[in-house]
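Tutorial handout. Part one gives the primary structure; part two gives the three-dimensional structure as tokens.
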Amino acid sequence: MSNSFSTYASGLNGPATDLMPVTPDDGTDLSQIPVALYVAGGGVLRIQTVDGRDVSLPVADHVTLPVGVRRVYATDTTATDIFGYIVK
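Part two.
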């Protein structure tokens, strides 16, 4: 299969080169810092930003949050089916 993006440099404005499933965990940072999160099932999302700020926010179904995230906490997170957009 041909990759239309192979001759372009990756950038933060897209496109993402991969998706990673995110399992909320109170004690473990994500293995990679995504440039955005996609949330399929809305609810409350409790995260730690790249700058170390803890934030809880309500999100609707099928929302993309363009924020770098270090951790998605299990405690207080009710949102489901969370994926990280990865740029390599």
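Part three, for discussion. The CA atoms of residues 45 and 57 lie 5 Å apart. The mean pLDDT is 89.
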